[in-house]
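STRUCTURE:
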């Protein structure tokens, strides 16, 4: 019993006894203050690391804002330049349209004047023939014989002017007949105007002392083409034409 007690004392206070550490007592507020300082140091180190990383990568907030403002200003300037260029292009297009319209009007005027000049020349020749004192008595001439397509498919319009030249002692009376040379595909054929039963139609009758204008239309198959047209002038009671003239159409 005594030996057991002695061994217990040796274990607690002898060489084999556990070590005892003596520590200084620290108040609780000093502990909290140390923890706060440690936390602040950690936060500061973290912020410094983040700021250094942002600066190293070129993504600092202030720099990004300056670059954004610079790019925004550049885009605004480019938009203004684009708007100005679009305005100039629109002005140029309008000016070009005006010039084209002016050129078209001038071309039409030139064409009209040329046609009027040609008509005046024909009128001059016509009145010269009317005023001619010589020539065969009662001779007939054809002026301005024209044949052209009309608005409807297969429709044609013809115009001509008959003039009695020389000494006009009496009124000319007679009739007109037309001979059409047509093509329809590979087929070629001839058509007479007016038909046999319509030769007394008013539009084909002639009665004039100086001149008579003739104008009319005729229709053929839409797929047929008039190659030429011949006018024949018959005097009343005559079986042979007094005058013939042919004009090519197409």
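SEQUENCE:
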């Amino acid at each position: 019993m005594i030996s057991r007690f002695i061994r217990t004392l040796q274990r607690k206070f002898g060489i084999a006894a556990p070590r005892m550490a003596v520590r200084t007592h620290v108040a609780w507020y000093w502990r909290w203050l140390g923890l706060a300082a440690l936390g602040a140091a950690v936060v500061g180190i973290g912020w410094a690391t983040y700021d250094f990383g942002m600066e190293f990568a070129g993504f600092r907030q202030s720099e990004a804002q300056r670059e954004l403002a610079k790019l925004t200003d550049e885009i605004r300037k480019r938009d203004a330049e684009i708007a100005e260029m679009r305005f100039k292009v629109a002005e140029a297009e309008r000016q070009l349209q005006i010039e084209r319209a002016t050129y078209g009007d001038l071309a039409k005027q030139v064409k009209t004047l040329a046609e009027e000049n040609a008509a005046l020349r024909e009128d001059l020749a016509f009145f010269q023939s009317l005023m001619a004192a010589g020539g065969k008595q009662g001779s007939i001439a054809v002026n301005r014989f024209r044949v052209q397509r009309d608005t409807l498919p297969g429709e044609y319009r013809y115009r001509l002017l008959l003039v009695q030249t020389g000494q006009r002692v009496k009124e000319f009376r007679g009739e007109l007949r037309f001979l059409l040379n047509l093509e329809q595909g590979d087929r070629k054929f001839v058509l007479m105007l007016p038909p046999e039963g319509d030769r007394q139609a008013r539009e084909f009758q002639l009665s004039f002392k100086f001149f008579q204008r003739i104008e009319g239309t005729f229709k053929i198959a839409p797929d047929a083409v008039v190659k030429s047209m011949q006018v024949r002038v018959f005097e009343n009671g005559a079986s042979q034409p007094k005058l013939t003239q042919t004009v090519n159409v197409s």
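REMARK: The first strand starts at residue 139 and ends at 149.
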